[in-house]
Amino acid sequence: MNFTSLPNAIILNLFEYFSLIELFQYFSGLNSRLNKLLYQEFQKFHLDLRSLSKRKVNEIYENYIPSIINQIISIHLSNDYETPQQIQSFMSRDDYKLHQFLHLQSISISNLRCKQTLDKIITECSNFPYLTHLTLTACTIEMSDSDKQHFFNQIWSLSKLKYCHTDIDSHTKSYSSSSPVISKSLKYLIIPNNIFSLSKFADLYQHTPNLRHLSTWFVVEYNELQILNPMYSITQLNITFHGLGNMLEHLLQNLPNLYQLKCDLNVYINGNEWEDIIKKSLPKLKMFQVKMRYTPSNNENKENQLNEIVDSYRTNFWINEHQWFIRCHWYTIDQNEQFNFIDVFTVPYAFDSFWEDNICLLAKSTALYDKNYLQCPCVKTLNYGSSSFTDPIRSRLRFNNLQHLSVSLPFNERFFFIVSRFDRLRSLFVYTEENKNLNNIQFQLQLILDQAPRLYSLEFSTWARSDSEAPLTGLRSDSVRRLDLIRFYFNGQIYHFDEKECIQLSHSPLGIQCEVLLITVKNRKNILHLINNMKNLRSLYVHSIDHYWPENGSVSSAMDGLVQWLYEQLPSTSTVTKSQTDSFGIHIWIR
User: Fold this and answer.
1) Do the Cβ atoms of 143 and 151 come closer than 8 Å?
2) Which superkingdom (predicted)?
3) Domain 142-294 - what CATH class?
4) Who's near 514: CB < 8 A, 6+ residues apart?
5) Full-model pTM
6) Using one digit for the tens of pLDDT, what is the confidence trace for 175-228?
7) Please, which residues have CB within 8 angstroms of residue 519's CB and are 6 or more apart in sequence?
8) Which of the residues 44, 104, 196, 510 has the least number of beta carbons within 10 Å of its own beta carbon?
């Protein structure tokens, strides 16, 4: 069937699977019918400017947005290494302003560092009558308690907002209590960088009476005596909790409609205690996922102590009624076993990262067929250190759904059994360790690259080779477009690329296809060489060693001079800015 013979409704549905720029590239101007569907009928444009070249972003600004501004329902902006200063660039447009996107339903901002820009965005949000989703991630903005209170007041005043994710490192972790503003629309709240006490949680719920899902961090002092009232609307709770078990129990006693509970605890609650809490207070609970880490009172009779743990989770309630199973690991940080801790967690492992480099001495499980529960499909981020999976216990774990992998080279022969699939891997961080045979590391790294068709970012840290061969030599990957060499230590020293090495990098297979580069170079001329010779490079974040110790003046003035010099050398379409978090960093959005 010919595409143009499809009914309008089907074509409009198909449009939803294309990005904004793809829609105009593929369908604009083909015929009057498609033009009408695109410019008048289609009402679900998503303006996602992340990970785009400066040229494409400017093309969208000038050619597309003005004609569809009332059809855009979501905006995604980022100031990360890929698109530095993109948010400020968008907000400073003269031909249209943020408040003109009147049909906006969702706005997502990431990597913002400027409080004034954040204030402006949140203020503009009050102009969007259909806004239901607000996401702020990986932002670092210094705020006082009064600033935070004003910030949350503005969000709670958005009358249609249902979903709010605010991941802002404000240097003051404590949640600031709301004002009399009450949000009856807000149902999903994710605030990982704010700490709640029981009293502040009570205040939050008082001002968010229809809250269903909460994901956050609790720190409850042992002497806190806050009386909580039942919170009937909350059905999903995902928390990190630091405090005594009876404080957690008091919290859960007031969530009678809880359907899903996921918690990371620094305290141990045995199976009998959990069973009592759930039976008395959580009658509707269907999904129970927990991880508890604690220090045992002594290091004697490890077998007996773990048996006591698993026995408390072997009752009919756990095994037959709910089929909730747990596993416990006894860890030590060294061979002398001077410091020990125990992890108790439900299986399959339900948390998104596994970052454990200590020695596992003993493990127990309530799962009859434990092999079935050694799969870790929820883990998206894994650190595979040289000693991470050498013991016979953790070497049986399987991670087949990873998106981010940190791996020490050379890895042992168990690596490809523990991580057998790389088809979803997006970023890879590699490093070497001392006192290892390093002759095979280039080959091992290439083996991973060959099995990772979606790998986008490759980052190097410490690297050591007896033959001084740089890590990029000969490496190939069809998918890698981002190289991070900014924290690269080579044979024990901060590595900087001189003119010869910049030439080698620009001619290497990975360098030729690189679009985003983070690197340390010897001097400012090396920066120009990279920009002029890496034809696919669109964004560069760079340190120049010559500017670490300026002969005259401060580092700040030296960096100002470097920015000015780069502006004089580069096309006027390029953007050059100093990093707001790194005294030596320069962002260049090239093309």
Assistant:
1) yes
2) Eukaryota
3) alpha beta
4) 480, 481, 482, 483, 534, 536, 537
5) 0.92
6) 666 567 999 999 999 999 888 999 999 999 999 999 999 999 999 887 777 789
7) 483, 485, 486, 488, 497, 505, 530, 540, 541, 542, 543
8) 44
In terms of Cα–Cα distance, which of 73, 185, 208 is closest to 128?
Answer: 73
Tokens read off for 92 = 């400073």
Q: Is the peptide bond before 348 cis (omega within 30 degrees of 0)?
A: yes
pLDDT attached to residue 4:
80
pLDDT tens for 229-261 read 999 999 999 999 999 999 999 999 999 999 999
The one-letter amino acid at 323: Q
Q: Which residue has the tokens 């080779």?
A: 465
What tokens appear for 329 in the block?
């690991």
Query: Three-class SS of residue 369?
Result: coil
> Torsion angle of alpha carbons 47, 53, 56, 60, nearest 10°?
30
Cα gap 585→565, rounded to integer Å:
15
Q: Which residue type occupies 215?
A: S
Distance from chain centroid for Cα 2: 42
Kind of pairing between the strands at 188-196 and 359-365:
unpaired
Domain ranges of the chain: 142-294, 302-421, 448-590
Amino acid at 7: P
